[in-house]
């Protein structure tokens, strides 16, 4: 379904987006934290983008929760995204970078909408810019 160029675009684009969302979140919501300028690697945001795209493309496929409980992919990924939004909104501090996951999910959602589903086919400037940007990676 995806070529090497599209996969790399999704992976590195979502990693960059996840890192920028992480930095923005820490800058605005944790202003007194001395480590707020430390970036995030973005790998978990990339995986969140890939799973979001997969869940949107194949919503009825089955994920196994704890390797036992079958559930639709769209439900599992959606609930995990809402959990990350809850953790970011409650400003809970832990080892999981919820802001990066949200950034990766947003990138995956936007990529799915404009590239796979074709939502950017209307004549608006954002769609034209995104199509020109993605045209290079279409192979």
TrEMBL record:
Its main location: membrane. The chain crosses the membrane at residues 6-25, 37-57, 63-83. SUPFAM superfamilies: Rhomboid-like. Residues 2-116 form the Peptidase S54 rhomboid domain. It comes from the Eukaryota. It is found in: Membrane. This is 5799_t:CDS:1.
């Amino acid at each position: 379904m995806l070529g090497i160029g599209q996969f790399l675009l999704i992976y590195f684009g979502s990693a960059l987006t996840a890192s920028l969302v992480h930095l923005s979140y820490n800058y605005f919501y944790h202003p007194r934290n001395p480590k707020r300028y430390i970036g995030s690697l973005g790998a978990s945001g990339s995986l969140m983008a890939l799973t979001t795209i997969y869940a949107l493309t194949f919503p009825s496929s089955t994920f196994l929760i704890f390797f036992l409980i079958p559930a639709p992919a769209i439900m599992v990924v959606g609930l995990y995204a809402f959990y990350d939004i809850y953790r970011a909104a409650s400003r809970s501090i832990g080892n999981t970078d919820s802001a990066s996951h949200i950034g990766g999910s947003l990138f995956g959602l936007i990529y799915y909408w404009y590239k796979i589903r074709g939502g950017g086919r209307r004549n608006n400037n954002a769609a034209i810019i995104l199509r020109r940007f993605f045209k290079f990676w279409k192979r």
